[in-house]
């Protein structure tokens, strides 16, 4: 006779797609996924939205608004809030990324993941722009005075939007 280890569950939760059982997930794995997606994930999303809203409120103060780097920090905070909101459909998905119908699968694969990746990548590029500006401010102060205008930030954001849109087209 074959024995099962005591730490594994013998019962399994069926994962269904189009009324067909695709595979069975062990019950203990299903519990971990449920805790991860329905308890931990919403806590992180809520904390992310609240802390980034606080960051925006602090950097919008009159004394801090004049600092050039705060514009980048505000854009990063807005992108983080957008990212947290883009993750919300994944929290409400009860099947742990195994979709019940074609429409739901199409949305998540064609739009959901792409939207999340576009927003997260935009935040990374904003961080690169901020690092580049700090480099110019330290090593080439005269050049930095020319780059310090709001017009340069807007041009970079437009270039970033075009770059991200082109690189994530499915």
TrEMBL record:
Keywords: Membrane, Transmembrane, Transmembrane helix. The keyword Membrane applies. It holds the Pfam family 7tm_1. Residues 51-170 form the G-protein coupled receptors family 1 profile domain. Its main location: membrane. InterPro entries: GPCR-like, GPCR_Rhodpsn, GPCR_Rhodpsn_7TM. This is G-protein coupled receptors family 1 profile domain-containing protein. It comes from Meganyctiphanes norvegica (Northern krill).
């Amino acid at each position: 006779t074959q024995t099962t280890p005591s730490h594994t569950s013998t019962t399994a939760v069926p994962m269904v797609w189009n009324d067909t059982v695709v595979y069975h997930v062990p019950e203990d794995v299903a519990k971990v996924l449920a805790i991860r997606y329905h308890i931990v994930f919403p806590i992180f999303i809520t904390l992310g939205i609240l802390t980034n809203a606080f960051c925006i409120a602090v950097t919008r103060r009159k004394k801090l608004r004049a600092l050039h780097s705060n514009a980048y920090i505000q854009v990063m905070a807005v992108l983080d809030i957008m990212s947290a909101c883009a993750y919300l459909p994944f929290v409400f998905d009860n099947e742990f990324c195994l979709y019940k119908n074609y429409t739901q699968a199409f949305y998540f694969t064609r739009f959901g993941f792409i939207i999340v990746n576009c927003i997260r990548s935009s935040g990374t590029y904003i961080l690169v722009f901020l690092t580049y500006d700090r480099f110019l401010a330290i090593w080439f102060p005269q050049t930095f005075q020319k780059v310090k205008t709001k017009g340069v930030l807007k041009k970079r954001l437009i270039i970033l939007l075009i770059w991200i849109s082109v690189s994530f087209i499915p």
